Amino acid sequence: MKIIDIKLGHISVPLRTPFKTALRTVNSVEDIIVRIETDTGNVGYGEIPPTGVITGDTTGAIIGAIESHIKKALIGMDIENIEEIMDKLDKSIVGNTSAKAGVDIAIYDLYGQLYNAPVYKILGGYRKEIITDITISVNEPEEMARDSIDAINRGYRTLKIKVGNDAKKDIERMKAIREAVGYDVDLRIDANQGWNYKEAIYTLRKMEDAGLNIELVEQPVPGHDFEGLKMVTDNVSIPVMADESVFSPKDAIKIMEMRAADYINIKLMKTGGIHNALKICNIAEVYGVECMIGCMLEAKVSVNAAVHLAAAKKIITKIDLDGPVLCSEDPVDGGSVFNESKIILNDAPGFGIKDIQGIKYI
Ligand SMILES: C[C@H](N)C(=O)N[C@@H](CCC(=O)O)C(=O)O
Ligand SMILES: [Mg+2]
């Protein structure tokens, strides 16, 4: 099964409500679709969100990386030589993890098709069903409390609350939400790098003192500030998760060696796809550090690939794969079934994506 072409397209999917974090506000998913064609007629799909504020990857840069570098390196290669393909993909251009992830996902889709097996079974096949949290955007405390109740009415039992744009107000936000939802619901928070380490320690201790029972805090300080992250981890009881601090397997080793965080959030767009995400899973197993699998604001093609990784790996114990349920429609035919918090895999070969509506080829 040889790669004969890599085509790129664009999809636009409106969100149910604006997605707001300490870093950005977004109204729709505007992603690049990767379609890899082979000499056997098999087609593999990938998807790439341009999340410039986190990965540095813009739409133009993603297209440029694939058209001018990745395509040249991979055309003509045989899918059965996946190890060599991933080596060439890594070396084709420095950085550009999102572009690499979209191509890596399409390659794994084809790899599963080649061996007539779903990718999660090839990678480990640990479970067939996973439960995701849902994100509550950062807004005024009363609005966030209302959004939290709505999420619970939709069946979610774990909420990921965005904070980080105003430390004092963040405490009010969490008080309003906990009061509204009670104590049967797990609340995890994500500051998206919005605090410095002193603010983080102050704010998180206030939340502890108020008995808010926070499950974990994601990326309290800037991604590059490993020492600050460790200061927070060492000085609060709420477990700390590294997100923007960990892109590569080397980042993961550094964070784990330093004991700078209690958990790692793996996202395919940061790692450059499944092949590097698998390395982080292996490292995490060695260090005994549980992982979350997360996503950017993405539709179902790339999130479905993350679902397969989560289903394959025991070390992934926390799921934040809510991209598709934040969208107002699903352009994807096939793949896992997203029934609000419950995500059920199917056993179609590869990632099981049959078709994607509304692709505008570039
Ligand atoms: C969508 C997901 N729940 C999430 O919050 N992901 C990121 C932010 C992604 C984005 O800005 O597109 C995260 O920081 O965990
Ligand atoms: Mg995060």
UniProtKB/TrEMBL annotation:
Q: How is the cofactor bound?
A: Binds 1 Mg(2+) ion per subunit.
Any one GO MF term held by the record is:
magnesium ion binding
GO biological process assignments: peptide metabolic process
Tell me which residues make up the Mandelate racemase/muconate lactonizing enzyme C-terminal domain: 141-239
Q: Binding positions for substrate?
A: R24, T135, K160, C295, L297, D320, D322
Q: Which Gene3D superfamilies match?
A: Enolase-like C-terminal domain, Enolase-like, N-terminal domain
Active-site residues from the entry:
K162 (proton acceptor), K267 (proton acceptor)
> Cofactors per UniProt?
Mg(2+)
Q: Does the keyword Iron-sulfur apply?
A: no
Q: Which residues bind Mg(2+)?
A: D190, E218, D243
Enzyme Commission designation: 5.1.1.-
Magnesium keyword on record:
yes
What the record says about family reads:
Belongs to the mandelate racemase/muconate lactonizing enzyme family.
Descriptive protein name: Dipeptide epimerase
Please tell me the species this chain comes from: Wansuia hejianensis
